[in-house]
C-alpha cells in the first residue's frame, strides 16, 4: 500500500526515529529531516536495509528559507509530523530571553513554517501531527520549554480550525517521560523525581509515541482534529497513583 509521502522532523533520533520506522511500515514513503547529518544518514540506511522506504534530508529547521525549500521539494505531503524539539533544564530565576528564543524557534516557529508551507500543497485527507509535551500543563525547572509547548498546543488548535475546510486534520500528542537521548539533559536526581510522578512507575518507549502517531496519521482517521492525546503512562492524571 502506498500512502504517499510523510515528512518527520527530528527523525534521526529518539521518538522521531521510531515514528519514521512505524510510518514506513504503515506504507508511507518517509523523509526524515534532521540537523544531525551523521545520524540521519546512518539511521535511514539501517531502515532501508530492512526494506523500508526511508530517505533523509539534512536541515536546520530554525533556518526558515531552508525549511520552506525542503517542504516545496516534497509536496504534496500526505502527513507532516512536527517532532523536532529542544529541551533543557534551568532554574526559574536563571532563565533568560535567549533561552525562551531558542525554545520557541524550534518548538513553535519551525512548526508554524512547516505547517503553513505543507498545508498549501496538501490534498484533503492529509494529516499534521505535532509532538507537544505533557509538560505544557505545567512543570518546574524549564519554564521556557513549558511555554513553548503550551504555545504549540494553542497553534495546533488554531491550525485545526483554519485547515478543516481543506480536509486537513491537525492534532497533537503530549508525551510524558519517554526513554530517548533527550532525557540526558536531566540530572539523575531530576530523572528519579520525574519517575516518582509516574503512576506506571516507568518511562515510556519511543514506540508508544509512534503507535499514537500511526493512528492519527492513518488514512481512515478522518473525524478527529484539534485534539491533544496524552501518551504519558497516566502522569497527566495529577497524582502518583499512591
Ligand atoms: N523524551 C521525552 O521524555 C519527551 C517528552 C515530551 C515531549 N518530548 C518531545 O518529543 C520530541 C522528540 O524528542 P526526543 O526525546 O525524541 O528527542 P531527541 O533529542 O532524541 O531527538 C530530537 C531530534 O530533533 C533534532 N533537532 C533538534 N533541533 C533541530 C533543528 N533545529 N533542526 C533539525 N533537527 C533538529 C535533533 O537533531 C534530534 O535528532 C521533542 O519535540 C520533545 O520536546 C520528549
Automatic annotation (TrEMBL):
This is 3-oxoacyl-[acyl-carrier-protein] reductase FabG. It is an enzyme of class 1 (oxidoreductase). Residues 4-176 form the Ketoreductase domain. It comes from the Bacteria. CDD domains: SDR_c (cd05233). The keyword Oxidoreductase applies. Belongs to the short-chain dehydrogenases/reductases (SDR) family. Its EC number is 1.1.1.100. GO terms for molecular function: 3-oxoacyl-[acyl-carrier-protein] reductase (NADPH) activity. Gene3D superfamilies: NAD(P)-binding Rossmann-like Domain. Keywords: Oxidoreductase.
Amino acid at each position: 500500500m502506498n500512502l504517499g509521502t510523510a515528512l518527520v522532523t527530528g527523525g534521526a533520533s529518539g521518538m522521531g526515529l521510531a515514528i519514521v520506522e512505524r510510518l514506513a511500515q504503515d506504507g508511507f514513503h518517509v523523509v526524515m529531516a534532521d540537523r544531525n547529518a551523521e545520524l540521519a544518514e546512518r539511521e535511514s540506511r539501517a531502515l532501508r536495509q530492512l526494506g523500508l522506504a526511508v530517505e533523509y534530508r539534512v536541515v536546520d529547521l530554525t533556518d526558515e528559507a531552508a525549511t520552506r525549500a525542503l517542504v516545496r521539494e516534497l509536496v504534496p505531503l500526505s502527513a507532516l509530523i512536527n517532532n523536532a524539539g529542544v529541551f533543557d533544564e534551568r532554574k526559574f530565576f536563571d532563565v533568560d530571553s535567549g533561552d525562551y528564543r531558542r525554545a520557541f524557534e524550534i518548538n513553535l516557529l519551525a512548526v508554524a513554517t512547516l505547517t503553513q508551507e505543507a498545508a498549501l500543497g496538501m490534498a484533503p485527507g492529509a494529516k499534521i501531527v505535532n509532538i507537544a509535551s505533557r509538560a505544557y500543563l505545567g512543570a518546574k525547572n524549564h519554564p521556557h520549554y513549558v511555554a513553548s509547548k503550551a504555545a504549540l498546543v494553542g497553534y495546533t488548535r488554531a491550525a485545526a480550525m483554519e485547515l478543516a475546510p481543506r480536509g486537513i486534520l491537525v492534532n497533537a500528542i503530549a508525551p510524558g517521560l519517554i526513554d530517548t537521548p533527550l532525557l540526558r539533559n536531566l540530572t539523575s536526581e531530576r530523572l528519579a523525581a520525574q519517575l516518582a510522578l509516574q503512576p506506571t512507575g516507568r518511562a515510556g518507549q519511543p514506540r508508544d509515541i509512534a503507535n499514537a502517531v500511526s493512528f492519527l496519521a492513518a488514512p481512515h482517521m478522518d473525524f478527529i482534529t484539534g485534539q491533544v492525546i496524552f501518551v504519558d503512562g497516566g502522569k497527566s492524571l495529577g497524582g502518583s497513583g499512591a
